[in-house]
Amino acid sequence: MKVLLTGGAGFIGSHVAEAYLDRGYRVVIVDNLSSGKLKNVPEGAKLYITDIGAPELEKIFEIEKPDIVNHHAAQISVTVSARDPLEDAKTNVIGLLNLLNCTAKFRVRKIIYISSGGAMYGDADIIPTPEDYNAKPLSPYGIHKVLGENYLRFFKNEHDLHFTILRYANVYGPRQDPFGEAGVVAIFTNNLLNNKVSKIYAYPENPEGMTRDYVFVKDVVKANLLAGDSEKDTAVNIGTGKSTKTYELYKILSEITGRNIEPQFADARPGDLKFSCLNNKKAKDILGWEPEYTLKEGLAETVQYFNSI
Ligand SMILES: NC(=O)c1ccc[n+]([C@@H]2O[C@H](COP(=O)([O-])OP(=O)(O)OC[C@H]3O[C@@H](n4cnc5c(N)ncnc54)[C@H](O)[C@@H]3O)[C@@H](O)[C@H]2O)c1
Prior knowledge:
The protein has 309 residues and is α/β, with parallel strands linked by helices. The protein has helices at 11-22, 57-64, 78-83, 85-105, 117-121, 140-159, 184-193, 217-229, 246-257, 281-287, 295-308, and strands spanning 2-6, 26-31, 46-49, 68-71, 110-116, 162-168, 170-172, 199-202, 211-212, 214-216, 234-238, 244-245, 264-267. α1 links the parallel β1 (2-6) and β2 (26-31).
């Protein structure tokens, strides 16, 4: 089995690449290294440093002839997408279309498409939110994820491209960038270990911060493997179904790191979702997936990683 994995030099994609290699799959990564890093690319994977929107992508498909495509590459900043929707669309819409055209031309059997539950559902009034909730994305990033999902349905009907859509909750774990605007676990861990003060953004009615559904990257990897085996063309949430407030998360990380540093509280930023938590019943029914890591276990592994680098 040969997988073409976009975004395989990034945080989540690099873990997925390792799992495919462990399964004995051949792995071809396409990544432009805009946020990904060479050192994340596992030994044994073949890397093309190329933009998914570039015309050369067709040549890569012609040479590699992948059986399946796993699409993790994305412009992932909600803030960038709000400031410059066109910039977001270059990767998240035009790049995706270039990729989908290649899958059709070279008759790829299946694509695993990575979407975002939180960005899609917005401030949902059903928590944990199920997949059939009417999407209300608040940012161009979320709008483009929804658009991408709809393009998959079109390519299924026109070109018989099978798909599984994985709508992630808030993923955390080793290799997450601690210097981004999101990825609060990596940011807090890095700050605590370096004796720096962290900021907790909060709305006045929820002074302990927003609530989020934190899912460990190793559980997310397992969902990707199961998605490759699934015959259903559908979308599933990949989350824990459990809500955690930002301050609660901070306190657990303080305990694990053994550091006692008071955080600063600040006003929520424009577009910050108040709450996000995903119902994971469908993932269990369709993929046989359930998270195995508790939050404390996943955070402990994450802290261990940040301690070791
Ligand atoms: N981290 C989360 O909590 C989370 C939540 C929901 C969805 N997602 C989705 O998961 C996927 C992976 O996210 P991540 O957190 O690992 O981010 P990441 O930034 O670490 O990984 C994205 C990778 O895509 C590459 N890339 C970006 N634009 C590209 C382009 N035009 N051409 C080729 N490569 C390109 C980057 O260099 C990087 O290696 C994304 O699709 C993201 O939207 C992540």
